[in-house]
Amino acid sequence: MLRSPLQWYDAYLFDLDGTIFLGDELLPGVERLMAELRARGRTVKFLSNNATKDPAQYREKLAGMGLEVPVEDIANTVVTTTQWLVAHHPGASLFVIGEEPLQRALREARFRLTEDPAEVDIVVASYDRAFDYRKLQIAFDAIWFHKRAFLIETNPDRYCPFPGGRGEPDCAAITAAIEACTGVKCQVSLGKPSPLMLEAALGGHDLDPGRCLMVGDRLMTDIQMAIDAGMASALVLTGESTVDDVLAREERSRPTYVVERIDHLLPTLAPGGGA
Ligand SMILES: [Mg+2]
């Protein structure tokens, strides 16, 4: 089942949690891979569904682990959610179930954030480690009682992978709580597999999707986005998805490559040769 690329790509797109790092540690092989890609002048971008940090905070986190990355090479759901709301619902009043970096970005984009359910136009569900019954009640009142607001989410991830096989409940759990009590469905999801994430990451770069490799640890988000975009994809087995998950999918929904370590993405130069 394991399969490494035999070729170099022009551009490499990397998920972060479970792909580049777990908790506060870079995963094995990341430094070697990045050094090789840089030496060959490849385009490298990072894209995360996690909205608990903004790109500047991710830049700092990566630098703290020894990986220097320009902030403009990092995109996440703080960026896609803000861009989508600016494009489609400028001036909307938002109730945001999300952490400070998301709230700050939305305020800076001139949205009004409110906790008064009678005024909420859009409920934004996200990964919020301070989620509680009070917030669920506000969302419920805004959507179900006042019949005014609709629901969007930053990302569809069920949990965020942590070291030692652990994890933290992610945005999908909060979206599901709101859907369960209101009976409404979330209308838009701004993270992978949405192509909006790809646009945010590649904005300005005119790249042939056939020359890009998307690398991630989740089939349903990272790999699905690549397949939808006509890109090659590589699943790293350092986060959520397993070989059994790959085998459970139809052939056309499987990643192009499956590797145990991220530096196994370095092309094997001859059949049977080591990466
Ligand atoms: Mg991940």
UniProtKB/TrEMBL annotation:
UniProt KW Cell division keyword: no
Classification via Pfam families: Hydrolase_6, Hydrolase_like
Keywords for the protein's UniProt record, in alphabetical order: Hydrolase
Protein name (record): HAD-IIA family hydrolase
Gene3D superfamilies membership: HAD superfamily/HAD-like
GO molecular function: hydrolase activity
Family the entry assigns: Belongs to the HAD-like hydrolase superfamily.
Keyword Lipoprotein annotated: no
Source organism: Tessaracoccus lubricantis
